[in-house]
Amino acid sequence: MSNAVFSSLKLITEPNELSQWHTLIQQAEQNYGCTLNETMESYLVFTLMRFMRQHNIGAQALAMDYLKAQRLPNALRHNQLRDVGDHCLILSGLFPQRADKRLVRVSYYVNLGRTAYQHLAEQIHQTSAELYHQLADTFVLLMDLLQTIRAFNSPALQPIQAHELWSDTGSRRAFTVLNDHATPLHESLLDSAIRH
Amino acid sequence: MSKHTLDARNLLCPMPVIKTQNKVAELSAGDILEVTCTDPGALNDISSWCRINGHAVMASHESKEEVQIILRVGD
């Protein structure tokens, strides 16, 4: 973690899980330079709280869950699509290294998660549809924020993953990681570097 | 003290708890709120949220189709 990031972090002394996650998300927003609306912020907080009680994150085949959802009755299908979207968000944001273990790119989770939220938005009634459209549209931003939280503790992405993620999704956070790993060339070496 | 209701049916978690949070913000200490949901996960979410935020779950009822939670707004 760079010194700039470290110095911008405050000690989290909130008394409970809810406010701790809330503070972390707000720190990530500040660090990343964006502000989520209240509903998106709350969605992230409560989703994180829900997932922290689960010990099998990433254990299931999410694409299979997505496909199976198509054959379920309405209420169950909605639940399953929401679960696929949320899982993809948490995996791509907090555990992007799991993608390597599954031999897929991080953008695989981005595409699947976006599709699940989008699909859900098209099937659900008006009030919630807007939320799920918003989740699909801002998926990369939300993933970036979760990766920012992850990076408070340890690097979220390796350079190759960062390059793939940036070229596949345009992730700003992935671009920053790439930049941080770039080796600056001294001007005097530039000519020879180009020649070879 | 007044009684209020919140219809969070057909909303998937975590939306019921987000709606509950927004509704409680408009109420006063001692007010009673009855929340009706269809996502069974809401019972756990709303109970945890109440415990963390000092609101009391006075009763909850789970039927095949719906979950009802009655809470008293804390200070």
Summarize the structure in words.
The complex is a heterodimer of chains A (196) and B (75). Chain A has 196 residues and is mainly α. Chain A has one domain (3-156). Helix content of chain A is 73%, strand content 0%. Chain A contains 12 helices and no strands. The longest helix of chain A is centred in the middle third of the chain and has 21 residues, at 74-94. Chain A starts with a helix and ends with a helix. Mean pLDDT of chain A is 85; it is low at 1-5. Chain B is α+β, with helices and mostly antiparallel strands. Chain B has one domain (3-69): TusA-like domain (Translation Initiation Factor IF3, 2-Layer Sandwich), CATH 3.30.110.40. Chain B has 2 helices and 4 strands. In chain B, strands 1-2-4-3 form a 4-stranded mixed sheet, covered by helices on one side. In chain B, helix 1 (15-25) packs parallel to helix 2.
The CATH architecture designation of chain B is 2-Layer Sandwich
Mean pLDDT of chain A: 85
**Distance between the amino and carboxyl termini of chain A:** 33 Å
Q: Tally the helices of chain B.
A: 2
- Share of helix of chain B, binned: 25-40%
Q: If helices are DSSP runs of H or I spanning 4 or more residues, what is the number of helices of chain A?
A: 12
Biggest pleated-sheet summary of chain B = 4 strands, mixed
Greatest chain-chain interface? A-B, 20 and 17 residues
**Approximately how much beta-strand content do the residues of chain A carry?**
under 5%
Summarize the structure.
The complex is a heterodimer of chains A (196) and B (75). Chain A is mostly helical and 196 residues long. Helices cover 73% and strands 0% of the residues of chain A.
